[in-house]
């Protein structure tokens, strides 16, 4: 099934828990009404990530990519292979001067996000900015405030908000199907030096910006930003205190950012969210483990596991899941119970959507941004989720650097009912 219709079908269920869990899906409500609308976008930073986003945007019939800006000519050359008609600029400010451009996609190094996005808002553009959206907590707040002041659309690169398996997982978690969630354990492990080939030594810090402290905060901003948002989405609250540790233990090659990090996010009610990332071992890969007293969910794998489960599935739940799968996919593939409830390693679980995941939500995220630019309507909660995801990874990084437990600053809180936070008055 076409994924646009997939989410439109989900939206039909929006009067209940799903609407509260993922209200930003309302951006697709006007897909048919805006069928003849088109928006003109510019991309600032068409490097590897930018071109990945471009692979979706360039195929969207409602979107015209009209310009690229980058200080690195090879990136412009590669982008032109995908959209030969686009104008190119070495200075992004020249792109922003084009009044015919409705919005911009920013996929540049972390330390440049804030100024480019602020300039884009000031130029009257709608903004999609890759995560993390800023280099400091103060910049993050200022950027969010500028979005509010201008009323322009603001999307961040949190694609799990549009990933069908995460959407369904959160609906079931918030319904209480897996009981009370006491903890979330998230991790993202790789085995590689994170380096890119450099054609000339003077380009080292430009190309390998992720490895240097003036332009990057390493694993926390590049990886943890995704998974911390998943954790607070599941728990429905903001942590009160953060502590962490990190080091360079394996890749001792002149880099300045850690090659392993471990953080604990503590909540007022005693619940915890942990985060770990190691890039010298990939065996366990990546996952967010949502732990309830009745069951466990692993949304990255798209699977769930019940704590106490007899020889046959619970009929009411199975009927609900099979009916939902049949509506979305046209057939269900539920295999029934086949695990020993006493031995975790023998519990294979079941796919929450009836099959293994085959996408990560990026295509739907870019599609939603185009819809929002066409209609000039900001979807609810998406800017706030991106805001707090950035703040959580930044305070985690700072806790690691300082080597002490840090409270979440009251001054960095914004009005956001789902987490029960209010900005200082």
The tally of beta strands, per DSSP, is: 15
CATH fold-level topology of the largest domain: Dihydrodipicolinate Reductase, domain 2
Distance between the termini: 48 Å
Count of the separate structural domains: 2
Question: Judging from the principal axes of the Cα atoms, what is the shape?
Answer: globular
- As a percent range, the share of strand residues is 15-25%
| Average of per-residue pLDDT values | 89
What would CATH call the architecture of the largest domain? 2-Layer Sandwich
Structural class: alpha/beta
Q: Segments where pLDDT lies below 50 for 5+ residues?
A: 11-15, 328-342
Determine the CATH superfamily of the largest domain. Answer: Dihydrodipicolinate Reductase, domain 2
In words, what does this structure look like?
The protein is an alpha/beta fold and 425 residues long. It has helices at residues 3-11, 17-21, 48-57, 73-82, 92-96, 110-122, 137-150, 164-175, 204-207, 218-235, 315-329, 362-375, 382-402; strands spanning 39-44, 63-69, 87-89, 103-106, 126-129, 154-156, 181-188, 241-247, 260-266, 272-278, 286-292, 295-298, 303-306, 350-351, 406-407. β9 (260-266) and β10 form a beta hairpin. The longest helix has 21 residues, at 382-402. Mean pLDDT is 89; it is low at 11-15 and 328-342.
